[in-house]
Structure prediction request, 246 residues.
Amino acid sequence: MRFDVLTIFPEMFSANLQEGILGRAVKKGIVKVRLVNIRNFARGAHKTTDDRPYGGGDGMVMKPGPIYQALKSVDRISGQSLVILLSPQGQTFNQKTAWELARWEQIILICGRYEGVDERVRLTCIEKELSIGDYILSGGEPAALVIMDAISRLIPGVLGGERSNLEDSFEDGLLEYPQYTRPKVFQCEEVPPVLLSGDHEKIRLWRRAESLKRTLERRPDLLQKAQLTPEDEVILAKLKRESGPR
Ligand code: 4FV
Prediction:
């Protein structure tokens, strides 16, 4: 997977591309990241990348030219690359989108700043628009990092032997079950005995019930979309009986 990131703050990515799972994937060459500084494509002595909005109003808008030229500088893998603008007006990013995007060879991410980008950037450059959530960031860079991290975990070889992403939250549409590690007792709180039993079937059932319980309590909206087995339906019915009318 190759990410090309168009930004006026390339240095905001350095640490994330050296540390953790994403950093290791970059070191292993499984994930390639190219940072393109939009300011290098700005004209004038001050290389301005923003200007005042036509029609008045607060704040500044990113100029279309430097973004357009920066994008033209990227060598695209034909038929295998997708240009994405990060903005609050985009489709909300989730695990399903991450799987869809992980199938591309090259993802080009455009990070807005200020009040956003000139609308003609959308008309001339953008193939997809994504939002990481209904809140306003000061720039698209944090959103680009979120998306690069979530997609990279799905690339074969990125998650070492220590785990697979198949048990992650949302993989099967449910929230993940509670996790425990040593010590057996912490702050007078004991690890659930079933997890110490060595009975893998009992452990599987307990974890599934905990996932369903947590999802029912915290994100009942997810249950509508989740792929539930007949066994899940039995557990869920029991949970609903126990928790009483909502
Ligand atoms: C955002 C989001 C976001 C809006 C104006 C950057 C900011 C500024 N991007 N998901 N939420 N972007 O708030 O992706 O340009």
